[in-house]
């Protein structure tokens, strides 16, 4: 049975600021903001207000080419109760000192500061996630862990703390917003919003490990999902096929036949693809040497790694990194 809001919750009307960085993902942006929008007509009174903030006031382009209008910029020193940074894969290369200063100042003032999708890179670079738990997209975990050892990564879909919040990206931002609505105004309103969007709140506390594997692979074979999980958690040194088979209590031949039937390719090739995707994340988002990345992803030497990388991605790792060296956005002169 849904609980009613307390008088203190009813009186709240949090002011939300959404800092949309260039090339932000529209899916994550909408998934975060729409539940708050729906809470206003579904509640007894308007529950939220929000403002879009850009690095500069004016249009901000999303990764799909659509634009939204930012009403103000960090230079205007807007004040909010909750600030969400929404960014795609460029968040580790956007370098606006003014925005970081504003976020730090708002955090000191008491605002709840957080991020959706790879916006976690942006606020972590500002030092705002040190000592906090953090959820981030699975593809970005390796580079995030390397760059920010003081941040405690978690396998949850989202994290909501009193002063910080993060989500794994995509529709997990929707689940996180529902959690915030419940904390702000009670379970009844959060449930009404969830029902309005025909959304199942069963995901609220789920560990995204199994969910992510099923969603990413489309597999239903639990044993083969476990095999892929073993591959992803054993990069250096990589497990041998017979070791994986043994952990699944299968013979090597039986494992390889079943894996090929489930995925369409042999396990050794699938495993190599996982390691190369991890390597690309490290090449593009860390300062590790190519040789260090090779060993971290289970390759015996940098030469063989570079050859495999070029075959897979059409570019050598060193060249791939050079293409991304320049910051995407910096402060205006």
UniProtKB/TrEMBL annotation:
It comes from the Bacteria. Gene3D superfamilies: 3.40.50.880, Homeodomain-like (1.10.10.60). The keyword Transcription regulation applies. One of its GO terms (molecular function) is sequence-specific DNA binding. Keywords: DNA-binding, Transcription, Transcription regulation. This is Transcriptional regulator, AraC family with amidase-like domain. Pfam families: DJ-1_PfpI, HTH_18. Residues 225-323 form the HTH araC/xylS-type domain. SMART domains: HTH_ARAC. It comes from Tistlia consotensis USBA 355.
């Amino acid at each position: 049975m849904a609980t009613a809001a307390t008088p203190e919750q009813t009186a709240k009307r949090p002011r939300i600021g959404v800092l949309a960085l260039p090339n932000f993902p529209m899916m994550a942006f909408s998934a975060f903001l729409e539940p708050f929008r729906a809470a206003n007509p579904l509640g007894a009174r308007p529950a939220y207000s929000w403002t879009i903030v850009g690095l500069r006031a004016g249009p901000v382009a999303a990764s799909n080419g659509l634009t939204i209008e930012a009403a103000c910029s960090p230079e205007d020193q807007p004040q909010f109760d909750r600030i969400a940074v929404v960014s795609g894969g460029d968040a580790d290369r956007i370098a606006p000192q003014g925005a970081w200063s504003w976020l730090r100042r708002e955090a000191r003032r008491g605002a709840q500061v957080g991020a959706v999708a790879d916006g976690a890179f942006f606020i972590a670079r500002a030092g705002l996630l040190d000592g906090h738990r953090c959820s981030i997209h699975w593809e970005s975990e390796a580079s995030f862990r390397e760059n920010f050892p003081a941040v405690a990564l978690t396998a949850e879909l989202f994290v909501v703390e009193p002063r910080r919040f993060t989500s794994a990206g995509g529709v997990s931002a929707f689940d996180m917003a529902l959690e915030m609505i419940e904390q702000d105004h009670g379970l009844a309103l959060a449930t009404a919003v969830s029902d309005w969007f025909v959304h199942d709140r069963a995901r609220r506390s789920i560990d995204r490990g199994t969910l992510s594997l099923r969603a990413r692979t489309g597999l239903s074979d639990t044993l083969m999902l476990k095999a892929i999980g073993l591959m992803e958690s054993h990069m250096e040194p990589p497990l041998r096929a017979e070791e994986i088979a043994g952990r699944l209590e299968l013979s090597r031949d039986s494992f390889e036949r079943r894996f090929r039937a489930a995925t369409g390719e042999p396990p050794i090739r699938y495993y190599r693809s996982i390691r190369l995707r991890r390597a690309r994340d490290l090449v593009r988002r860390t300062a590790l040497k190519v040789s260090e990345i090779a060993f971290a992803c289970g390759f015996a030497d940098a030469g063989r790694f570079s050859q495999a990388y070029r075959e897979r991605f059409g570019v050598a790792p060193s060249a791939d990194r050079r293409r991304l060296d320049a910051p995407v956005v910096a402060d205006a002169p």
